[in-house]
Amino acid sequence: MNQAAPTEPRPQVVVLDTGGQYCHLITRKIRELGVYSEIRPSETPASELSGLKALVISGGPASVYEVGSPQVDPAIFRLPCAVLGICYGQQLMAHHLGGLVQKGDKGEYGMAYLETGAGSALFREAEGRQRIWMSHRDTVTRVPAGFEVLGTTETCAIASMGDAAQGLYGVQFHPEVVHTERGRQVLSNFLFDIAGCERDWSPREQALRIEDEIRRVVGDRNVFFFVSGGVDSTVAFTLCLRALGEARVRASYVDTGLMRDGETDFVKGVFESLGRGIFSVEHAQERFLSALTGVRDPEKKRHIIGEMFVEVQEQILASGHYLEGNWILGQGTIYPDTIESGGTAKADLIKTHHNRVSGIQKLIAENRLVEPLHLLYKDEVREVGRELLLPEELLSRHPFPGPGLAIRCLCEDAAQPVRKLDGGWLAPLHSVGVQGDSRSYRPVLLLEEPPDDEGIHLRATEAINRNPAINRVVSLAGAHVPVAELRTSEAFITARRLERLRAADSLVRRLCHESGFENSVWQFPVIIVPLGVPGRPDSIVLRPIDSVDGMTAQSVVMPPALLEEMTRSLLALEGVCAVLYDLTHKPPGTIEWE
Ligand code: XMP
Question: How many domains, in total, are found in the chain?
Fold first, then answer.
């Protein structure tokens, strides 16, 4: 196994990644139970996995018999540690130990009910009938010698199996997802009763350890950070500051003019309270705005913003002499960013994220880099931040995209009316979506009914499935004019439209905060779209969503009283004609409109 640095924790449990989206979730759940665990590629040789208490083989999309499907070293089953195979992991275990795996008559996706008998350590306090989450087509049809069947569902005769003497267990269902009722209990039984793990992990206790690690990596050098005001870079910076002292750390923040209302002052306040003379703001509002003049295309916008960041950051690096001598770069990279899972490695490009600054590349190539959070998950970073007494307002904030409000300020280069369609109106506004892993850029369907019941999401999904010309559905929360009068106008990013969007976003944030609704959503983008009438040329789109990691997301219904107050206040803003509510899940719509 990769040798951990002397100040870094050693995992008791390794999760072998077979390319599934659940690999990080399993690791996080194990850590939540107080046991430090890390991820390794599924094919890691058994000789590199010594000294562990347990191995977990994750679920993945492949079929064990497929050529090139992810495998494990069969010798891992002879290691003196317990092994749990989950989903594809159970199938691999059966396949290698002499059982049989076959394609099922039909798949089993979503909720199912598991029946387990008494007597197995894996299901202690989780016996009987329970709701579980399944996602499979292949299935184990004969257990290996020495194994017993521990659980069944209506469709799956071997939903769990185990060989207690060898400490080998498999489950076809996903104990790591919240929809599995007693999943946490099953994982806990495996870790503590079967594998004999000890509780050794609490993110809150990591600050001092990480500070030691920073001193070890940095030596007698100094550390420079580009900070965004986000949780990761702020926590990473604060740890470096505590480890090294005010004289040896610096942070720079680029004000692009694409920030939310009050953001720059907020970030400035946080950093200035941490120490004197450690923080500087680069004012680049005019440069970003003029580079974006007259640009409609979302990918072009992202490209221009990425390039401008490169230019400004290169200048800061050069003028601060940070590329020379004793300076190294600090970054807020977190654990999931360091593991390229098989599931994401070949993902299609949906949207361009930021380019890498060549000066930064140089520092990385020269190994002049410190990433204090590289072993932590986002929730763990927040816990460390609490330990450091950083403001809760900063730690619990929703994610905000690097290109800022630019990708929430929709532009169009043609004036066109809305058009009546069967079941709604076609609004000639284009937004980005993701369908079957590839990008779409299509118009929006506008429903006249208000977003006031759960059923409306079903109708929205049906509408998208029925009409391949659209990738997003919004419903009308309120307007100054009848829908038939709405039209798009030629509009780009201007200081005025950004001001209008900032006012709307700030109003929405205040109401969400006061009502507590901000805690019911993962993110709440507010978008300005050039749809209206002369004098009121723009409309505001509300996009509250729930998600775990931003890869998929559900549109959320808002309490009617809150929506009513929000709509009324937004319609009172200068230039705003209508308030629209985005009903689209991801997929088929992306979270951001661009
Ligand atoms: P999408 O729109 O792709 O967004 O569904 C998924 C999540 O990623 C955020 N996002 C970005 N974050 N730079 C970022 O740092 C970007 O260019 C960027 N684009 C999207 C988005 O806010 C959501 O949380």
Answer: 3
